[in-house]
Design goal:
The protein is built from 17 helices and 16 strands. With 484 residues, it is α/β, with parallel strands linked by helices. It has 2 domains: 245 residues, Aldolase class I (TIM Barrel), CATH 3.20.20; 120 residues, Double Stranded RNA Binding Domain. The protein starts with 13 loop residues before the first strand and ends in a 32-residue tail after the last helix.
Length: 484
């Protein structure tokens, strides 16, 4: 059993709550600048996270969890490592634990959102749907508490009665969680409904673990002093701020809020510096502008279709170009370093050639890999073996093919494993002076063979396909390995 030995301090803390599309790295860092003590990421679904690969992004100085389609699902950095809580949506204890183990070394705590009333969450049995299933709540939280070394928390909404809510919270307390956040509304209620401070207070007095009060933005919180007012009204240990922080993150500033212009400019700087997607950046800025969206600047923002255009709307074009140039220079420098290391690596026995595969140069269904495989069979060599690595910096691929105990590869990096393997096959074929299947090559025997006997089995029943060329020797340069 793993014991949580490093609990976060929730006493009298101002916390940036998770908000869908808002709790990204730039907003979290800005909230910390202004005085938030703990920040939550946006709710991330367990199944989506389990598809991700952890990649260290040396250009941005971040740790990225990247989906198979290349989209960054969760990005964090060293600065927030001791104060960022990873919040997930889950309805399964084992999946929840798998996600927690994936991220626990990069975050300060793990939270399960059991209060989200949105359909995308509840229809999967997550969020507020869990409130009617106490046994599943107990299973998920107990599994997490016993399975990870970081503090575990959860967030719920109040139930139809105060008695039911307190009973559930006491059951949650018994799981060993470090704290519990209470949104003072029922699952069917929305921000315009009053927050139930009396219920949060009753819970705070009924349990011994820290209680985090949430839901006061609409009724209470307009500036920093209101955070303490809400805390006292609920007798909670700390306060979680969501909408008020979304409208102006400087609500955490003890000296008083900053002007909206300054806040937005600081936010944009973080968004550019950490390559935040322009749609998310645009959404957050629109939430800050609110009633000012109809003025000239608001209309420019609304029309923006890139980060550059957003910066132009806020007269920050110079910052955008300077920062982009610095990041690009750093990327080029790291690529050059990687290339130099590759050239001096332990592959002196590898024959290298700067070649790429362009399928437009080949007849349909004919590839260099097929040509190489057919040649190996004809010469009674073992079939080619491909070893492919992925470069974490930019997620590009390069492959080495071994034929007759000699290795060959292209010096160029490709966008996919398939392209990298084809390029290595070309390097081998050209070195050996063999035909590679191009349209302009005379008497292409593979083309003639396909025309003559399409689908006929070759060599003891094996079909001549891409699958026949493959062997499980893919080695990833990132934290996880895959098979090509």
């Amino acid at each position: 059993m793993t014991v949580n030995t490093t609990p976060l301090a929730f006493k009298n803390k101002a916390i940036l709550a998770p908000m869908v599309r808002v709790g990204t790295l730039p907003m979290r860092l800005l909230a910390l600048d202004y005085g938030a003590d703990i920040v939550y990421c946006e709710e991330l679904i367990d199944i989506k996270m389990l598809q991700c690969k952890r990649i260290v992004n040396e250009v941005l100085g971040t740790v990225d969890f990247v989906a198979p389609n290349g989209r960054v699902v969760f990005r964090t950095c060293e600065r927030e490592r001791d104060c960022v809580v990873f919040q997930m949506g889950t309805a399964d204890a084992e999946r929840a634990l798998a996600v927690a183990k994936l991220v626990e070394n990069d975050v300060a705590g793990i939270d399960v959102n059991m209060g989200c009333p949105k359909e995308y969450s509840t229809k999967g049995g997550m969020g507020a749907a869990l409130l009617s299933n106490p046994d599943k709540i107990e299973s998920i939280l107990t599994t997490l508490v016993n399975g990870v070394c970081k503090p575990v928390t959860c967030k719920i909404r109040i139930l139809p009665s105060k008695k039911e809510t307190i009973s559930l919270v006491k059951k949650i307390e018994e799981t060993g969680v470090a704290a519990i956040a209470i949104h003072g509304r029922k699952k069917e209620e929305r921000p315009q409904h009053p927050v139930r401070c009396d219920v949060i207070k009753a819970i705070s007095e009924a349990v011994s673990i820290p209680v985090i009060a949430n839901g006061g933005s609409h009724d209470f919180i307009k500036e920093h002093s209101d955070i303490e007012t809400f805390r006292q009204a609920t007798a909670a240990s700390s306060v979680m701020v969501a909408r008020a922080a979304m409208w102006n993150p400087s609500v955490f500033r003890k000296e008083g809020p900053q002007t909206l212009k300054d806040v937005m400019q600081e936010y944009i700087k973080y968004a550019v510096r950490y390559d935040n997607h322009y749609t998310n950046t645009k959404y957050c800025l629109c939430q800050m502008l609110r009633e000012q969206l109809e003025n000239a600047q608001g209309k420019k923002l609304h029309a923006a279709q890139s980060m550059q255009e957003i910066c132009e709307a806020f007269e920050m074009s110079s910052f955008y170009h300077e920062t982009s140039a610095l990041l690009e220079a750093k990327k080029v420098s790291l690529e050059a370093k990687d290339q130099d290391e590759d050239d001096h690596a332990e592959d002196a026995d590898v024959i290298k050639m700067a070649v790429r595969f362009d399928k437009r140069e080949y007849p349909p269904q004919i590839t260099p890999k097929m040509c190489l495989l057919e040649w190996c069979r004809k010469e009674k060599h073992p079939q080619p073996v491909y070893e492919t690595i992925e470069r974490p910096l930019d997620r590009l691929f390069r492959s080495v093919v071994t034929v007759a105990e000699q290795k060959y590869r292209s010096t160029l990096w490709e966008k996919s494993k398939k392209l990298a393997e084809q390029a290595s096959a070309i390097a081998c074929l050209r070195t050996l002076g063999l035909p590679e299947g191009k349209r302009d090559e005379e008497a292409n025997h593979l083309v003639n063979k396909r025309k003559r006997q399409d689908g006929e089995c070759l060599n003891n029943g094996e079909y001549l396909t891409e699958a026949a060329c493959k062997k499980p020797h893919f080695v990833s340069g990132a934290s996880n390995s895959s098979v090509s």
